[in-house]
Specification:
Residues 1-27 form the signal peptide. Keywords: Signal. It contains two helices and 18 strands. 5% of the residues lie in helices and 54% in strands. It has 319 residues and is mostly beta strands. The strands form three sheets. Strands 1, 3, 5, 6, 8, 10, 11, 14, 16 and 17 form a ten-stranded mixed β-sheet that branches. The chain has a domain at 39-145. The chain is globular, with a radius of gyration of 19 Å. A hairpin with a 5-residue loop joins β5 and β6 (121-129).
Length: 319
Amino acid sequence: MRRRIRAALLAVTTLSMVVASVGVAQADESSPPSQSSLRDARAAAAASGGLSHAAKGGIGIAATWFTGTLSAGGTQGWTWTNAPADAAYVVGYNPAGATTSATCQFETINSRYVQLPSGERQYQFTLKNVGSIACGATVQLTAVTSSVLASTGGVSPGGTQTSLWNVPWNTIWVAALNPSGATSSAACQFQVTRVWTVQPGSSLRQIWVEVKNVGTITCQADIRLGSTTIGSQFSMATVGPGGTWSTTWNNANPVTSAYVIGPSPQGSFPTYCQFEVTRVVYIQRINSDGSSQRQLAMWFKNLSTLSCGGTVYLQTIAA
């Protein structure tokens, strides 16, 4: 399936320049668990009293539940049933079980939006213990209200599309999908495979979103964007073309919250500065005095052909 680019307020020549400078960073497309092995997140949250107001939409923590103990490298697949059409999801973690010599670390490695043959919308994701010891985590499924900005039209299985939008400065953006076109025997399944931010001018910022049909039938999806304000911000180091910069946010409190993250590149015409968040890991560390600290480790990749940096935006979303 050829890639289609939808743009607003930019000339085709400008678009081609931006596309040419996009680098090789790719989102993790690890194979998700089979449908039959997915765990019911709504049931797990209900059983533990973890359903929150955002379970029905809006912005906030939709649900929390505990994973149980996972071995190092272990994974779990979860599905959030009856997902409201306007919800864009971000998953946070509050790891537990670190020792004085080893941290407990959790990361989301795969996610997708699904329309079942019944018409039900679901959000499915896979989490992984990426640390070196067996431990667990409280999952914090977080919702951000989103709006429809475009439709993919029919996309064949394995096909991708890339879209962009001009967005305001001083905001953080979350991409989501609302698939449609499921048949009586097959679901429509789409994944946001990449999201990156471009600064094509001193007064303009763009969000680029790549989506993929990860199901078995040709179908379509509405591409949605949700936004939040900025709670904290800090400067990124200057990174060479194709380089990755990582940092750790200490005392990621409150531990009952999840973080929404967005890079704001800074560059100059005619070569545009572009950054993508490639990994987000939640960590529990036991300090030397015995106290527990939650940390947020983040990785950013420079997709442009020049050395540049920017600003990292953070926002906490709590129940």
